[in-house]
Design brief:
Layout lengths: L11 H11 L6 E2 L16 H13 L12 H12 L4 H5 L2 E7 H16 L4 E6 L3 H9 L3 E6 L1 E2 L4 E2 L1 H9 L6 E5 L12 H14 L2 E6 L8 H4 L1 H9 L3 E6 L11 E7 L3 H16 L8 H11 L1 H32 L7 H4 L4 E3 L4 H11 L1 E2 L5 E3 L8 H13 L1
Parallel strand pairs: 1-12, 3-4, 3-7, 7-8, 8-9
Antiparallel strand pairs: 2-10, 5-6, 9-10, 11-13
Helix pairs in contact: 2-12, 2-13, 3-12, 5-6, 5-11, 7-8, 8-10, 12-13, 13-16, 15-16
This protein binds pyridoxal-5'-phosphate.
Length: about 400
Amino acid sequence: LFAGIQDAPLDPIMRLFEAFNADPSPKKLNLVVGVYTDADGKVPRLRAVQTAEKRWIEKGLPKTYRPIEGTKPFRDAVQELLFGKGAPILSQNRAATLQSIGGTGALKTGADVLAKLFPNATVAVSNPSWENHKALFTQAGFTVVDYPYFSAETGGADYPAMKAYLQDLPKGSIVVLHACCHNPTGADLSLDEWRDLVPLIAERGLIPFLDIAYQGFGNGLDADAEPVRLFAESGQEFLVASSFSKSFSLYGERVGALTIVAENPAAKAKVESFAKRLVRASYSNPHTHGAAIVEIVLTDPELRADWERELGEMRDRIRAMRERMADSLQQRHPERGFDAIKTQKGMFSYTGLSPAEATRLREEHEVYALETGRICVAAVNTHNIDHVIDAIDAVVKG
Ligand code: PLP
């Protein structure tokens, strides 16, 4: 039955992860995977999350099935996080939110909904993008194309090139946009660029699908959601995939949400029941544990304030590492544009290292980075930063 299946190539992240695990060196450093580690190199258990978990377990509630779309307090809290407290869209009843299996599950359910409704649409993702975007939309049956996004020259987003490409996309194409903390480059559009893009997408009749996997890691919870809010204010229909894996440090709990914004309450009700039917025939109901914890934290004022504080501490720690790396490397190699590491946002940076330099970084200095030059800045800390800087310095010197 299965002997004729062609071997799938191992994804570069998994390949390097396996090589890292097999490396016996005590000095080895993993800057490959997208996981935030704290100042001591540990995946944190957030204070508010621990308290919420304890409270929830103490209640001893039965683990019955959860509604297909998740509980109302969870969905309301997700919408408030996305659109902001008191936002008009919250009372307009045109946004449907469904709890999902992480951000990936939100993208997948959204892709399946769109594939049923618009099977011939093209999906445009940024070049480069999170590698699963292409795989996921291709699996859903779409043809996936790249829109220009990153400028290696500036280390920032190349908005004019992106805009020129999107202007020529056929009406009805789906455009996947990273709302903040672009993975893998760390290069985000400015707010003015978003203000220019949002009406352009409406004029061109494109379908925006925003991916917000790092809300709170860029400039703050509200500032990072600003692109989502601009779309909401514009009155357009759009989709948003939220992930709580990184912001709650709950990776394995798989907590996320898909929000679909329709033009009016009647269209919202239709698309919500359509999405629920797809979920029912896919995994039936979402999980309980992780979402219950996120719900408790987001709805309890004290826990929420503490979570926001701790998220802010994570953001500030990454920013401090960015500044130290950028300043030191820029001083040593002013021609390489390492200062962009400082302006890039979120957990990742495109350092501008070539594939050969990234290979030498691994082979000669045991610092594992992707061949594209992407590093996870969220894995750099005061104990390992000098090693990282010296290793990059050494490979750039050649
Ligand atoms: N979208 C982007 C851009 C990501 O980087 C990630 C995770 O790395 C996801 C979505 C998926 O998040 P989750 O782990 O919650 O499925």
